[in-house]
Every structure is written in C-alpha cells, then in structure tokens.
Amino acid sequence: LRAKADFHFTLAESYSLEGESPKAIEEYKLTLVYDPNSAQVRLRLAAEFVKSGLISEAVEQCKAALEVDPKHQDARLLLGGLYSAMRMYDDAIAQYRQVVINEPENFEAPLFIGAILAEQKKYKESIEQFEKLAVNKDNPNPQIAWYYIGRIKLEENPKNSAKAEAAFKSALAVRPAYTEALVALGSLYEASERKPLAVALYRDFQEKHGPSSQIAEELSRLYVELKDYSKAYEQFAIMEASDRTDVNVKAKMAFILIEQQRFPEAIERLEAVLALEPASDKIRFYLGAVFEEVKDFKAAMKHFEKVPVGSSYFKEAVIHTAYLHKLDGNYDKAIATIEDGIKKDNDQPQF
C-alpha cells in the first residue's frame, strides 16, 4: 500500500508542478485511498482545489487534515485564509488564534488577525493587535506591523496622517530597505503636497539600497511631473534593465528623447518598440513624426501611411503625409492623400 501511495503522490506532485490541477486532484485522491490518514496529502489536495476555484472542497480537506493532525499549522493557516476569503471572519480569526496557541512563536497568524479586524473596520482592536507585534522583541519582522499601523491609521481617518507618517518611519527605522513602507510614506508626502520630500525619499533609497525597479517607477513618475526628464530617463533605464520586454517603459524613454530633441536615439528606441509591438499605431505615428523632424520624409510617409483608419492618430497621419507631399512639390499627391483620407473617414472636419 505504501508503494502505491508513493506512486500516486509522485504523479500528483508532477501534475501540480505542470499546472494540471484536475489530474493532480485525481492522483491525490488515489493517494488517499492507500494512505487516508495523511494530513499532508489532504493539504496538497486542498491547495489544488483552491487553484481550481473549488473553495468548499478545499475547506473540507483542510478540516479532514486537522482531524488527523490538529496541530498541522499549514492546514490551519490555509483554512483561516479560506474562511477570510469567504468573509467568514470570526471563523478565520478562530483558526489563526489556534495557530498561536499551538505555536506561540508564530508571528504570521497575528498579522492575519490584525488584517481581518481592519477589514471589519474594528480599527482600535486591529491597531492594538499590530502594536503588540511591533514591540515584541521576538518578532523578526516588526516593520510589517508598523507598516500596517500606518495604513490603518489613514484608513480610519485621513486626518491621522501625522500618526501614519510616524508609523511608516518606524517601519523604515527597523528595515530601511522595506519598500512597502517607503512607497506608503512617499505617497503620504505626495497627498499632503510635500512632493519634494517624496523625491528626496526615493532618491536616497536608490542611492543607499537600490537600484530598485519598484522605486524607479515612483521616482520616474515624479521626475516627469517635475519635467526633469534627464533624471526620469535614468530611472526608466533601471526599470528597463529589470524587464527588457516592458514595451511601455521603452516607449516612455523614447518620448523623453523626443522631448530632448535627441532624434536619432529616439528613432532607434521607437524602432525597437515597434519590433516588439508592430501593431502599435501610436508608436508608428511618432516614428513618422521623428523621421519628419530629421527631414527623412520618405521614411516618415512610410510610417504615416501605415496608421490604420480606426486609429486616433489616423487624421494627423493623413495631414502629415499630405503636408510632406506638398513640401516635395507634389500638390496633386497631397490633394489625393486628403481625398483618400476623406473617403476612408469622412467624419473628420480637419480634412
């Protein structure tokens, strides 16, 4: 029986890793035929039920696992999470409290309790829960508790910004590289019209603990708002280095180059974006516009003419193409371009 249980369990694990939950579920069920008292197998089966959206079945397997082993912490934590997702908050809290009874040094369950209390808008109880965690010398991650205290203070009353700020700073004092608290503090600075403090906060982080693509995203946005495009470009470069396939970042870098009139570099960047997103009419239009700026009218028209009728850039593309024909002295072609544009989209008074 043990060999058969192991065989089906191995198959189930393999199917699970391959993302084939239905097959994994069947193999875990077969494993239980030969090993019905395995709490771990029931936990794995519950996890596959969750992946398949079968929450009630997952709950039943967690309960069955706990009947076999009442101190199985992972099963109890999962059951608490399922109850929380089902908004059965009292049941969830009961499970998390039992986790703490079984394992007093567990600091994960109390976090979940505090979060549920906040979800129930029991702000005072929630903050008290997190404050206990924040000052507990045995807690390896008090910064998380401080972070939640700050968030809950703001959720309870936006006028609690000073208390929230103090909590976020306490989190960063414990763990200076804790980006969740950093972004929360930066957002608070922005909301209270202290944008320079947010910039300084993020910049200091990048210098001491970076580069971080998450912080680069926040800092680049602020630099763009301040029209400090050179510094924004530096942060976009950090983001690009962390994800070479992010077309949006590449496009933003190209637009900065256009703003700075660095047209050859902008063309290179836009062509790279177009290679990744050949259907992007926006990129094609801007590429045509940049070619127009460098007086490569043939290349400009090639891109303008490929902007489709349904695009919001179609009208401008037609006008630019006609204008370039006019500059080339080909008035008939310019007129024909406008007439063709009207035929394709006669709801454009600009034509």
Structure in words:
With 351 residues, the chain is mostly helical. The chain folds into 3 domains: 1-106, Tetratricopeptide repeat domain (Serine Threonine Protein Phosphatase 5, Tetratricopeptide repeat); 189-244, no CATH class; 259-351, Alpha Horseshoe (Serine Threonine Protein Phosphatase 5, Tetratricopeptide repeat). It has helices at residues 2-17, 21-34, 39-51, 55-68, 73-85, 89-102, 108-119, 123-135, 142-156, 161-174, 179-191, 195-209, 213-225, 229-242, 247-259, 263-276, 281-293, 297-304, 314-327, 331-344. Helix 5 (73-85) packs antiparallel against helix 6, helix 11 (179-191) runs antiparallel to helix 12 and helix 18 runs antiparallel to helix 19 (314-327). The longest helix has 16 residues, at 2-17. The protein starts with a helix and ends in a 7-residue tail after the last helix. The mean pLDDT is 95.
